[in-house]
Design goal:
Length: 294
């Protein structure tokens, strides 16, 4: 019953958040995702008689992952309304699978304190065994958010995933980008993809769809962005300056998260301030919204 309840609610949550991520600013999808995941867990908890009144939240990064503040606020609000306290485990190292294991090992020592858990996995491919082991010993529902740690058929009993399909995010961005490039008659566009290693499906699908729709596209992928604004700014600035020295212009930049998108915008604005023209540069629609942020 528990597995069916969690899996069914997770599928609903995925469908709700799936379609509009790239077209909607963060304030819209954060409460939807947070509310859905929290209600999935709360729906199970209120059916039990456990005296445990704490829910664990494990995240891969915090300082440069600003959407988490809104997510966490909504999680706390929903669970507090059901009488549960929320315990947030901050990472020792951002986006580190081994660092996240330290969080999980700390939680294991007080496993009886918790009634449920949310986990946003860091480097899930490298810690799948440990994540599965944590679910097995937990004895409570574990909901994975944002990053899929397992294939659909491989989730441990009592666990589920709520979020968007990473390949579809990349495909939506690529279809929009290809349409913009075609409107500008770009048959051999030069494209930079700035990504991190955790969300590999997103950039791979973006590149695959672009190549399918515009076979002449020249694509460079830099996966060292670390989902950080400053790192992405340095990557994009270096790329733009190198292109300028070669007498080339970059046609499109695609970043696989908001923080890196902000860094890309910073770099573009710096190049424009230095007198290097970036007016023709195209960025995906969701990235374009970040220009309104400070």
């Amino acid at each position: 019953m528990t597995g069916a309840l969690l899996a069914g609610a997770a599928r609903v949550g995925s469908a709700v958040t799936h379609a509009r991520w790239l077209a909607s600013p963060a304030p819209l999808w954060i409460p939807i995702l947070a509310g859905t995941t929290s209600l999935v867990l709360a729906a199970y908890l209120v059916r039990g008689s456990s005296a445990r009144r704490r829910v664990l939240v494990v995240v891969p990064a915090f300082v440069q992952k600003h959407w988490l503040a809104g997510f966490f606020k909504n999680v706390v609000h929903v669970l507090d309304s059901q009488g549960y306290d929320t315990v947030l485990k901050l990472p020792v190292h951002d986006y580190s699978g081994q660092g996240q294991l330290l969080q999980l090992n700390s939680a294991r020592r007080r496993i009886r304190d918790y009634a449920g858990a949310f986990i946003i996995p860091a480097e899930p491919e490298s810690i799948q065994h440990e994540l599965r082991s944590f679910c097995a010993i937990a004895g409570f529902p574990v909901i994975f958010v944002d990053v899929k740690p397992f294939a659909e058929q491989d989730y441990p009993s009592g666990s589920a995933f709520v979020g968007s399909d990473q390949k579809e995010i990349g495909a939506i961005g690529a279809r929009w980008s290809a349409a913009q490039l075609n409107q500008s008659n770009k048959t051999q566009p030069k494209i930079l993809i700035v990504s991190g290693k955790t969300q590999g499906e997103r950039q791979r699908e973006f590149a695959a769809v672009i190549r399918d729709k515009i076979p002449g596209a020249k694509i460079e992928i830099n996966d060292q962005g670390c989902f950080a604004r400053d790192t992405a700014r340095e990557i994009v600035a270096k790329f733009l300056r190198a292109a300028h020295l070669r007498g080339e212009k970059i046609d499109l930049i695609f970043c696989t998260n908001d923080e890196m998108a902000l860094g890309a915008v910073d770099a573009v604005q710096e190049e424009e301030a230095a007198g290097r023209d970036c007016d023709d540069l195209i960025m995906p629609a969701w990235t374009e919204q970040t220009r309104q942020k400070p």
